[in-house]
Amino acid sequence: MESIHLKPKNDESPSSFAKRLGELYADSVSKDHKKKNGQFFTPLEIAHFMAAYFNSNRKELKILDPGTGVGILSCALVEKIIANNKLVRKIELVVYEIDKDVIPLTIQSLEYLLKFAAKNEVVLTYEIRQHDFILHNAHCFRDTSGDLFYKESEVFDIVISNPPYFKIAKTDLRAIAASAVYSGHANIYSIFMALSTLLLKNDGQLIFITPRSYASGGYFKVFRSFFFKKIQLNNVHLFVSRKDTFSRDKVLQETVIINGFKQEYKLGNQTEISSSSGIVDIDNARKRTYSSDRVLDLNTDEKIMYLPTSDYEEHVLGVFRTWRNKFIDYGVKVSTGPVVAFRSKKYLRSEYQNSNVYLAPLYWLHNIKQMEIEWPIVKPKKEQYINIEPLAKPLLVPNKNYVLLRRFSSKDDKNRLVAAPYLQYYKKAELIGLENKVNYIYRPGGELSNEETVGIAALLSSTIYDTYFRIFNGNVNVSATELKEMTLPDLEVIQNIGSTILENNNFTIDFINELVNNQIELELTE
């Protein structure tokens, strides 16, 4: 890449020039290289959209771009500052980039930006730090103010970033450095977000585009508690499509842009939520404003971020917040299937065998349809039986009533929640196997009645529950933790739903939606 030099076009904006440099680089490296480094370069339209959140009239500004790539976000932000802040006279820009093949292009981009600033009578200086952003600033996660040689960290007025996205192991030095702000397996982007808050001045501005996965779930619970106590959200933009935001790099997950300020959380603050399908309709984004505590209630244990984008979604959220009961209040538990296929391979069987080895049916994710269980289904390497023998018995569960729910939804699933009732009389077996990609809902030390089993499955399959789930979850996975935290109507309502479905022998989604809406008096209109 060092021998390649691209010339700016006449009167080309720095961000447009950076875009062309980024495309040049992206076309020169493999998908594996980009995936390994979590590199998803920011489209120009999104860079401008993020930069438009800039809000400061200071004469001097210090900006941090901790994962700069070719510098398109820095360029878009400086352009916006110069256009909107007539008082600005000096901008200090600090960027981090560790890919040695990208840096020659970053230099070209920022040199052109420097000339652009000079033409507009703004003194711009920049520094490219070829260090790992997290390790270089790891001391910020430690409270060393009492040390004899304590040196205060530098701080910034604005941090803007499209950080890398990939999971890191607990043994990774970056994970160890940031262990105070996450639990389980961390995704590196959340560490970028947490560290950036520590490098912000009080009232400093933070603008990030990331996956939406930190909004809920157990892995990000500690992070949410840390981050949202420091950052007051002013704006959240949700890209509803899983594939339209970074389509060039085929990123298949929901993405959000957040804009906030380093301020104490206060009741009464407002948060604007906007949404678009992708980039094409970003300029016509739908906007709604909520009190900040409706988006994020820090008084709850999970501190989930809710992103309603319509009247109907807001109404659904309001209904769920009137309910106080969860599964645990009804003596019901949610667990994950104990059969991990690759670890249990020696116990699995594709066909029923007449021998002295007893077999139990094994249920996989693909066996679970909406309100229906289809078994067996012949698939390569997806055995439908598991041995009943002493070493395998701890992996099996008693054959009784369960609600089975897929832990992952596929791109072909209309609903994010795919649930079905399993009634024990389906199979004449003492034990059954549940594969690890299946969640199961049951009553420990007792049993769900048929009405409860069907009623719970129907609720989870309904439009209202799917809508509620989408308001706080943008992932393909459905964790047991999230299911445990979902609120439920009265147990009598659940039983009535199940009883009516069984009496009518009607398990269709249209019937279920009408029944559920009538039971909780909810209109399915926006």
UniProtKB/TrEMBL annotation:
Catalytic activity line of the entry: a 2'-deoxyadenosine in DNA + S-adenosyl-L-methionine = an N(6)-methyl-2'-deoxyadenosine in DNA + S-adenosyl-L-homocysteine + H(+)
Entries under InterPro entries matching the protein: DNA_methylase_N6_adenine_CS, MethylTrfase_TaqI-like_dom, N4_N6_ade-DNA_methylase, SAM-dependent_MTases_sf
Keywords: DNA-binding, Methyltransferase, Restriction system, S-adenosyl-L-methionine, Transferase
UniProt-listed GO biological process terms: DNA restriction-modification system; methylation
Organism of this sequence: Brumimicrobium glaciale
One GO MF term: DNA binding
Keyword presence, Nucleotide-binding: no
UniProt domain Type II methyltransferase M.TaqI-like: residue ranges: 96-246
Domain of life: Bacteria
Protein name (record): site-specific DNA-methyltransferase (adenine-specific)
The enzyme's E.C. designation: 2.1.1.72
